[in-house]
Automatic annotation (TrEMBL):
<dbReference type="GO" id="GO:0005829">
    <property type="term" value="C:cytosol"/>
</dbReference>
<dbReference type="GO" id="GO:0046872">
    <property type="term" value="F:metal ion binding"/>
</dbReference>
<dbReference type="InterPro" id="IPR029056">
    <property type="entry name" value="Ribokinase-like"/>
</dbReference>
<dbReference type="GO" id="GO:0005524">
    <property type="term" value="F:ATP binding"/>
</dbReference>
<keyword id="KW-0067">ATP-binding</keyword>
<dbReference type="Pfam" id="PF08543">
    <property type="entry name" value="Phos_pyr_kin"/>
</dbReference>
<protein>
    <recommendedName>
        <fullName>pyridoxal kinase</fullName>
        <ecNumber>2.7.1.35</ecNumber>
    </recommendedName>
</protein>
<dbReference type="GO" id="GO:0008902">
    <property type="term" value="F:hydroxymethylpyrimidine kinase activity"/>
</dbReference>
<dbReference type="GO" id="GO:0008972">
    <property type="term" value="F:phosphomethylpyrimidine kinase activity"/>
</dbReference>
<feature type="domain" description="Pyridoxamine kinase/Phosphomethylpyrimidine kinase">
    <location>
        <begin position="13"/>
        <end position="247"/>
    </location>
</feature>
<dbReference type="InterPro" id="IPR013749">
    <property type="entry name" value="PM/HMP-P_kinase-1"/>
</dbReference>
<comment type="similarity">
    <text>Belongs to the ThiD family.</text>
</comment>
<dbReference type="InterPro" id="IPR004399">
    <property type="entry name" value="HMP/HMP-P_kinase_dom"/>
</dbReference>
<keyword id="KW-0460">Magnesium</keyword>
<keyword id="KW-0808">Transferase</keyword>
<keyword id="KW-0418">Kinase</keyword>
<keyword id="KW-0547">Nucleotide-binding</keyword>
């Protein structure tokens, strides 16, 4: 079978549970070969969880190094500043023939003080080129500029993001609306599907990254957006069941 190559444009998570670590582990679990263009480094300091953007010249060199790789899909994660986002968008525009998943990381789960909401307008520029976007509730609020307190609010936000140019929208609700059920929704402009799984009592990171990179993997393997979201919801659930405290992917591989 011909090897398929995936690109994660994402950051390094110092705790190795999310970011590029989750992306590469997920690609490998789907028997895909993963590459990474690193957008940032992170560290826990006396200021909290800090993000240190990759130098823009170095970031550009990464893309130049990868320009001849025949990628089958791209997953975008944390873009720490406008310059990095613009460079990533320029690269994505050269690959309009393959699936692109945008995980618009506007708020870091470890610290809501780590916000890059100034990137909102720049991230909206990705919408026409992304096969699907996968914001969490806070990111969906910032992007749609709507408050989300209920499932009905989630649905309205998904429709607003679609109207803003997203081809497909998967909003990750997690357990923020229901303590017992992890609720996500999928919207493609016609169908609005609610996806639910029981909340698992674990302490880990990387579920959102894993979800997005799993969707990218499934799209590269030929699944539709709706199929990719359903498969990825189950993949993350199984991964959390087999996780340790540092990430959702340590002890689970898709068979």
């Amino acid at each position: 079978m011909t090897t398929k190559y995936m690109l994660a444009i994402s950051g390094n998570d110092i705790f190795s549970g999310g970011g590029l670590h989750a992306d590469l582990a997920t690609f490998t679990s789907n028997h895909l070969h993963g590459f990474v263009a690193v957008t940032c480094l992170t560290a826990m300091t006396n200021k909290g969880f800090e993000v240190f953007a990759t130098d823009s010249t170095v970031f550009g060199h990464q893309f130049n190094s990868l320009k001849d790789v025949p990628f089958s899909g791209i997953k975008l994660g944390l873009l720490p500043n406008v310059n990095i986002a613009k460079q990533a968008l320029d690269f994505v525009k050269l690959h309009t023939d393959i699936p692109v998943v945008l995980d618009p990381v506007l708020v870091c789960k470890e610290s809501h003080d780590v916000e890059v909401s100034a990137l909102r307008e720049e991230l909206l520029n990705f919408f026409p080129y992304a096969s699907i976007i996968t914001p969490n509730l806070v990111e969906a609020e910032l992007l749609s500029q709507r408050s989300i307190k209920t499932l009905a609010d989630m649905k309205l936000a998904a429709k607003k993001l679609y109207d803003l140019g997203a081809k497909n929208v998967a909003i990750k609700g997690g357990n923020r609306l229901d303590e017992k059920m992890a609720i996500d929704i999928f919207y493609d402009g016609k169908r609005l599907q609610v996806l639910e799984k029981p909340v698992l009592s674990t302490n880990n990171i990387g579920a959102g990254c894993t979800f997005a990179s799993s969707i990218a993997s499934q799209l590269a393997l030929g699944k539709s957006a709706a199929e990719a979201v359903v498969i990825s919801k189950d993949f993350v659930y199984q991964a959390i069941q087999h996780s340790d405290q540092y990430g959702v992917h340590q002890h689970y591989e898709k068979k």
